[in-house]
Specification:
Chain lengths: 410, 409
């Protein structure tokens, strides 16, 4: 635990801001849990919803790929053919785009929740960094996706992307390192239009592969991961997608041909998929790329402003049912039952568990005993929890068969 | 007390007890299709995390048994394939005129192109070998028993997808051999459709028309193959994600990438593949030319057996036989109904015979001079011996009473 005495006013201001955001999120979660129920609460399921959206966009993308021709002459006609002639083609494209938009919205909320409820802090800070990597990755995938039809919008976005990527070369001092050429070279320094389009396709598909890889990595470090959505939430997500798809007018959008000699004045992109690009006309390439890097760096070092969370078990109060399983199992007597925080439930005598941090030895037994995933050890990964439980069992002198991974009574 | 998500997975009981999230106890017998399906999906074990977990629970050393690393290696090899494939994608041009020269350029002047190409090729070979060995291991240990049916079928599908992805990738180089092979496979598809009784149902020309974009190998065919190749890889990646998501929580060994054992494996595979890619750069051949006919016609080694089968029997019979073998293989968990645990001589010998058949046909494809009648006779002899030996072993041990416990799958 870091000392708290020498805290500056700016630091405590940051913490109080963070805490009030945390209260906001908890209030939202509480009321939405009353409306949607504990299991279907979309605010606590934001990670699972993200995975569902990634799956939707990946499946629609793989299907659309079957009808796409990555060459400068045929790209726009093939997209046009997809939405006019192929059965369900326009729906595929609309869902692909709507899910990409929704991914941005949900990932921003997901990150906001992790920040506001201090889930981004020290023990989970590596997972926070993995999540931060996903942000620019999704931006790049979205940007590349807009270029694939190779219409006039692609021309403009290519120029913008090029300026952004080569931006670091024009920064003072750092520009001397030629970082921009290192980043932008492999994508932009090509001989012809055809190669250019292929590299953008590689960026789009390779980015999608990398995103799925990041998700798998991210999940491996969450304990316990809530990665599955109930069927009802799936249906809700698909409904929202369908609504969004109906709102985005893809049918009427014409794909104007790519003409390098007459670049358009203004292009339309969806608000969310590449929202930093909204600031491009205002700031220009070098400044915008600097701003993006600055924001990402600030977010990456933000966990250092927090106090270390003590390595004790934590009860997720919203999920705790007061069943006393952890109370019975804890060998250290570190669990007590306290009245429920909800006045209505408290009036009915409901209780929830609370951890006495002075008694907790973070052995993980309570995490294994909870049937509702309502108690967690945020400092540890699943692997560490299991090995710590096994060690605790050995130390307490229980027979091995009584380890939580054996079924007693076999 | 049964823990949430930590139920026994099939060796001691068919379908485990489970306490659901809402606290309701799902009974040991599947009353509903939902429970039944969930148990099977949760028993899915693409990368052997579950097998490792069960070994650990049984008190066996985690890396003790040979062939237990296969699933982990499969995942690592797949990751390497994806990384090198995305790199290749950046330099490949899917046009009839530009494909071969772009691959040539990749081999010579593209940054790290030699590694990308070599790693992609040799990792695919490794992927097929590992997937095949994994299937054999599962079959020998009879770990396909309930509730691992879906796990078994998905392992089979992974092998098939790997082989088809390998075939499409081979065609992408668009050298003379690939071009000829495309011709032949296309010709076989057409012959098969024309000769098959189902051809009259309006199927005629559909797969060839869809996959190859017409009656002959053209630009459209190359594009379709290119796109199918990427889409297959992408769907495999998605399957990995779904598998990760459906894995039950709190069971750490479901993490297929536990660092202490996986990193050494990763580095050794990477080093081996790199060394092989340096020593034996994947052959380029010569640009495709529709008028020339190379001799012998070569596919990747794992498809030689199929090609020989097509050559010896007629295409309709061969394709039907391959499909029948695949379906029968997928149905093994339902064919083998015995409740005995552990390996059974009959299953072992039949799987060995299948492997031997595949080996014989592959050897023939590699240039072993043996007549078609000879190869068919040899296969018949192998199967005869296998069935006899298996039946004898079965009679000796007494089917159904073997109580040996198998802990891995």
């Amino acid at each position: 635990m870091r000392k708290t005495v020498g805290r500056t006013s700016a630091e405590s201001g940051y913490l109080s801001l963070r805490r009030s955001a945390g209260r906001l999120v908890e209030t939202l979660e509480y009321y939405s849990a009353r409306f949607f129920g504990e299991r279907g609460n979309p605010f606590t399921l934001s990670g699972a919803i993200l995975i569902g959206l990634v799956i939707v966009s990946a499946v629609t993308g793989a299907l659309m790929l079957l009808f796409y021709t990555p060459s400068p002459e045929h790209a726009a006609p093939s997209v046009h053919r997809l939405i006019t002639e192929v059965g369900l083609g326009s729906i595929l494209r609309a869902f692909h785009r709507a899910s990409a938009d929704l991914i941005i919205i949900v990932i921003l909320f997901h990150g906001f929740r992790a920040w506001a409820t201090a889930r981004y802090a020290s023990p989970r800070s590596r997972n926070w960094l993995i999540g931060l990597l996903a942000l620019p990755l999704i931006g790049i995938i979205g940007w590349a996706g807009y270029i694939l039809p190779w219409d006039e919008r692609a021309l403009v976005l290519l120029a913008w992307g090029k300026n952004l990527a080569y931006g670091p070369d024009r920064w003072p001092i750092i520009g001397w390192l030629r970082l921009g050429s290192l980043i932008g070279g492999p994508i932009f320094a090509v001989s012809g239009e055809s190669d250019q389009l292929l590299r953008i396709l590689a960026l789009h598909i390779g980015g999608a592969f990398a995103l799925i890889g990041l998700v798998i990595w991210h999940l491996g470090r969450v304990t316990p991961p809530r990665a599955k959505m109930p069927i009802a939430v799936w249906i809700g997500v698909l409904l929202v997608l369908w609504l969004l798809a109906a709102m985005i007018p893809l049918e009427s959008e014409e794909l104007l041909p790519f003409n390098p000699f007459a670049p358009p004045e203004h292009v339309h992109v969806d608000l969310f998929i590449s929202f930093p690009l909204l600031f491009y006309p205002l700031l220009g390439g070098p400044i915008l790329s600097a701003a993006i890097v600055l924001v990402l760096v600030l977010l990456a070092i933000a966990p250092r402003l927090e106090r270390r969370i003590e390595p004790t078990a934590v009860v997720r109060e919203i999920a705790c049912t007061g069943c006393r399983l952890c109370l019975n199992d804890c060998p250290y007597g570190a669990i007590t039952m306290v009245p429920h925080f909800d006045p209505a439930k408290r009036a009915r005598g409901r209780e929830i568990a609370r951890v006495l941090s002075s008694c907790c030895s973070s052995c993980g037994i309570c995490v294994g005993s909870c049937a509702f995933a309502a108690i967690e050890l945020p400092t540890m990964t699943s692997d560490e929890i299991v090995s710590s439980v096994e060690q605790a069992m050995r130390e307490i002198g229980t027979h091995r068969a009584a380890s939580p991974f054996e079924e007693v009574g076999q | 007390m049964p823990e949430n998500g930590l139920e026994n997975t099939g060796q001691k009981r068919a379908v485990p007890d489970e306490v659901g999230k809402a606290g309701r106890v799902v009974s040991a017998r599947p009353h509903r299709l939902c429970d039944c399906l969930r148990a099977r999906i949760e028993a899915c074990d693409l990368f052997d995390g579950l097998a490792a977990f069960e070994r650990k629970r049984a008190g066996l050393p985690s890396a003790g048994a040979p062939f237990d690393f296969l699933g982990k290696a499969l995942w690592i090899v797949f990751v390497l394939i994806v990384i090198s494939g995305v790199g290749l994608l950046a330099g490949y041009s899917p046009t009839v005129t530009g494909a071969f020269s772009s691959v040539e350029r990749m081999q010579t002047s593209f940054p790290m192109g030699w590694w990308l190409r070599g790693a992609h090729k040799y990792c695919t070979d490794l992927f097929v070998i590992l997937a095949l060995l994994r299937l054999v291991r599962i079959a020998y240990r009879r770990a396909y028993k309930s509730p691992a049916e879906i796990s078994w079928i998905s392992s089979l599908v992974v092998l098939a997808v790997g082989m088809v992805a390998g075939l499409t990738g081979y065609l992408l180089v668009w050298h003379q051999r690939a071009f000829r092979m495309g011709r032949i496979f296309e010709g076989d598809i057409m012959t098969y459709e024309a000769a098959h009784p189902l051809g009259g149902l309006g199927l005629h020309g559909w797969p060839a028309g869809w996959i190859l974009g017409g009656d002959e190998i053209s630009q459209q065919a190359l594009m379709a193959i290119f796109v199918a190749h990427i889409a297959l890889g992408f769907l495999l990646m998605l399957a990995a994600l779904c598998w990760r998501v459906t894995a039950r929580k709190k069971v750490p060994a479901y993490r297929h990438f536990s660092p202490e054992t996986a990193w050494p494996l990763f580095w050794s595979i990477l080093a081996a593949v790199t060394v092989v890619a340096i020593l034996f750069p994947p052959p380029l051949g010569s640009p495709s030319d529709g008028l020339l006919k190379p001799h012998p016609i070569l596919a990747d080694w794992y498809l030689l057996g199929c090609y020989q089968l097509i050559d010896i029997l007629t295409p309709p019979a061969a394709v039907s036989l391959i499909l029948l073998g695949f379906v029968l293989g997928a149905l093994i968990p339902w064919i083998d109904r015995s409740s005995a645990k552990g390996p059974r001589p009959l299953v072992t010998s039949i799987v060995t015979a299948g492997l031997a058949t595949w080996l014989i046909f592959t050897l023939k494809g590699l240039g072993w001079s043996i007549s078609p009648a000879g190869i068919l006779g040899l296969t018949a002899v192998v199967w005869f011996i296998a069935v006899i030996v298996g039946a004898m072993g079965e009679a000796r041990t007494g089917a159904g009473e073997s109580g040996r416990e198998v802990t891995g799958r």
